[in-house]
Task: structure prediction
Amino acid sequence: MNLDGKVAVVTGGSRGIGRAICIRLASMGALVYINYVSRPAAAEETQKFIHEAGGKAEIIGFDVAESSDVQAAFKKIIADAGSVDILVNNAGITRDGLMARMKESDWEEVINTNLKGSFLCAKAASRMMMKKKWGRIVNISSVSGVAGNPGQVNYSAAKAGLIGLTKSMAREYASRNITVNSVAPGYIETEMTDLLDEKSQEQIKSEIPLATFGRTEDVAGAVAYLVSDDGRYITGQTLNVNGGMYM
Ligand code: NAP
Result:
């Protein structure tokens, strides 16, 4: 699984699942652009891990939900690195709450970051991919988007929307040798799941056939497969990485 000479952009690559994806793609030889929006120190730490392992990584801060920022960022990446070959739309936020009490701003923030942000980045990256007649796009969805989850109507809608975006993009771009897939993680050990109290964590684990939370590396492995040559004939799919909690 060799990505020598490829340029990869990972949104929200500074920590959590995104960090593991950056480390994995860099270990395969890609030059990785680590995106963040508010915590530059986390991005620097990810870059340090990659450099210490002998990989190549740059940092690019921008808000995926802001169209002009996204366009400027991809313009800069292409000017500096000459290409964008792989895009992983991983940046995501939660603003959980029951629907009856959910504020419109909670709906908008989640849809804008998790869904619109992925559309904007995919649109910007795919221009270059079309020219090169090669590209790999992976959208990080969620078990919440495929199975639903109380307290997450905004998040589930955004993550289900990503699957629709994936399928339609896959059909539009296949003739240019650009594959577009989703990875839908279940519960993965990150700051997002650290927020759950111990009782909730045990309750959730009891509903997972593999009886444990996943690791960020489990998601990174699925992304690595889809962007590598081994995944060349896979497009428009959703790969569930969830310990069997949704089949
Ligand atoms: P995380 O630890 O909270 O990290 C989120 C990342 O997204 C950070 O790098 C953050 O940057 C970045 N980000 C947030 N808003 C952004 C914006 N507007 N523009 C650019 N970057 C932005 O998240 P995670 O748990 O690793 O989750 C990563 C992805 O997997 C998300 O899409 C999430 O929905 C999905 N997922 C996670 C789980 C899980 O169990 N953790 C399960 C299913 C799906 P800053 O640090 O600079 O703010």
